[in-house]
Each structure stands twice: as C-alpha cells, then as structure tokens.
Amino acid sequence: MFKKPPFYPPTLKRRLSSPSRTQNKKQRRQSDDYNEPEDISLASEILTLRSKVQHLQTLVDKHQVNVIMETKTADVGIQCELDFNSVNECLEVGARNWTEQVDHDSSSITEGGIRVQSASDNGVNLKTYFITHFPFSSAPPWFGQAFEFLNRDFGVEYAELIQLWMRFEQIHQWTNPKSKLADLLRPGMLNDWSRRRSASIPALSTVALVQHFGESVWTWWCSFQPPWRTYSVSDNRPNPVSIYETDWKSLNKGGKNGWMLILTCVKWWREGLESLTEDERRELEKDWYTAMDDISRMLKGLIEYNTT
Hints:
This protein is of the alpha+beta class. The chain folds into 2 domains: 37-131, no CATH class; 141-307, no CATH class. The chain is 49% helix and 11% strand. It has helices at 10-17, 21-30, 36-63, 84-92, 141-150, 156-171, 188-195, 207-223, 259-274, 278-307, and strands at 66-67, 71-74, 77-80, 109-111, 114-121, 124-131, 231-232, 237-238. A 4-stranded mixed beta sheet has the order 1-6-5-4. Strands 2-3 form a two-stranded antiparallel sheet. Strands 7-8 form a two-stranded antiparallel ribbon. Strand 7 and strand 8 (237-238) form a beta hairpin. Helix 8 packs antiparallel against helix 9. Residues 1-37 are annotated as: Disordered.
C-alpha cells in the first residue's frame, strides 16, 4: 500500500535540507581560506600590542619616560617597531610593575634596548626607563651603524642629543649626501678617523689630552656657526642664542659627514673624561656639559627650521 510522505512545515523542510551548523563549521575549518586558531591568535597579538602601546603612553604621561617609538598602521592592526620583548625582560628585573615603588641603588641596568635608572620622587625611589632601542626600520644601513657607534650610556643629556640627531636625519630622509661640515680647524683625531672609519683612535687618557681635545672641538664648532651667531674670541666659546635666524646653511648637513661627526667628537670627549679619576673629571666635565647644551640648542633650532 502506498504511504503518503510525512508532512513537514516549510521552515522545518529548510532545516532538514540544509547542512547543520556543526557541519558548516567543520567545512569552514577544512577550507584553505579559513583557519580559526590562527585568526584568533593574530587578533590576540594585535590586542596585546595595542595594550602595550597604551601602557607605554601612560608611562610617558605619568612619569615623563622618554620613549622613542615608531608605529604604523597595517591591514592587520598595529605593528610596533619597538622591541617589546626587551621591555618585558626589563620588567622582569625585580619582578615589579613599572609604577610600583622599588628599592634600587643608583646604578643603571641595561636590558636589550632599554637603559634603566633609579630616580627619587618625594623620597620614593622609582625606576626611570630610557628606551634607546633603534626603532627605524626604514633607515639605511649607514644610519643603523652610526646609531650603534654613537649610542652610549653617558647620561640623560647625551641620550636627548642622540634623539635630536635621529629626528634631524629622519627629516632629511636618511640621505647621505656628499656635502659635509667644514674641514677647516677640524680636530686632528677626527681627520685621521674620518679617512678610514674603522681605524682605531688614540686614547684620551690624561688631563692634558682631554683638555686639548675639548678645546679643539670648541674651535671647530665655532668655525662653522651661522653668520648671525656671535662668539667670544677671548674664551673661544659661542655666545648664548636668544633668537634663531634663517640662515642655517653651514649647519644643515646630514649623513656620515654631517652631524654624525659632531656627535662623534662629543662621544670621544666623554670617553676621555670617563678614563680620568673622579677628582680630575669633576672640573673638566663642566665644559663638556656646556658644549652638550650649546650643541643641543642649535640642533633644536635647526630641526625647527627644517620643519616650518
């Protein structure tokens, strides 16, 4: 006897005829275009990076931490050029949160690209982080090598000068032109080294050698100041700058033969001071800090000129 097929409502027919949600999910997992675990992992990584960027920014605002960081937006989210692994390693030193109170002596710790120093705030010792990890993936090899050569732990003022120089070279798009700073009156040690960058230099190991080199740096620095800047002939020092003018041609030199040479002299000068005893260094380093301040002020003015 012929049996009539069972009657199903239209909605139930559609459910029975279409694959189940579980089957759809399995099919999607088997598809080459879909990989759920990887997608979840990528999303989690993006959120983690964003969280760390926000955390670093909070530290910058709250503790005036100096951070050099370049970020760029891609289809997958934020790619941060800063070495966060180094940050995490540094955080593990002492196993404390950045904003917590810490007991720390006056020595500095270096982890990856981060220099850590203690700082006192109302009697509470806090860690201060200076992140000097080289962050510019777009820079050419010459700049990376120059950064590695100049990047030394000589204090906050020197680190700030390095940052200004990095900004200046970035504005010039990392070019390495043939034009250079004035050769006239350049320190002899710099002349010898610039001919062959890999050549060793004599150590500035005595008070007399450090003093002589410092004076030669001042003489050279004064020789190529802009025409609107005056200096004292008697003490061989530029006069303080109150107003910047518009002629910066003599100083507006990037690349290996530009500001890198000025910073090289500053670095050698400090290395000479470090080789002296504390008593010998105490008086001589005042002149080094004066030079650092003057050089930094002029570089700030030059950056302002190039960006306006």
